[in-house]
Amino acid sequence: MGGKDSAVEEATATFVQRFRAWGENPFPPTLLATLITAQYMRPFQALPMLFPPVLLFTSYANVQGFKTDSAGISAAWSGLYLLLAGRRNQPFMKKWGARGITRGATMGLCLANMVGGGLAYTLGKRENGEEE
């Protein structure tokens, strides 16, 4: 006799499961590294270009089987980039150009990576070498 409560619980579980699956996927950090590189390669800016190698490393670690750890690192670095990118002021009319749309997509992807990676790291299970 489910009723409304069971439907809400299923929707919430599905929401958490979807974001956790997003956090455990190696593709979003790679896409984020690509977008960051597209913004800061020309003209080259050293500080923002520290993010793509770390994000690519998290994708590599994820493919190697370290899903929980790579989700946590990806979430942390995505949150750090979101914090640093959010501090810059951008005039309203420049938000609708190619650079502004790329910046907005990058910041949105950072937010999704931060939430998904945080959930995957928090709810993930580590496999220890020792058997109990």
TrEMBL record:
Domain of life of the organism encoding this protein: Eukaryota
Protein name as annotated: Altered inheritance of mitochondria protein 19
Lineage per the UniProt record: Eukaryota, Fungi, Dikarya, Ascomycota, Pezizomycotina
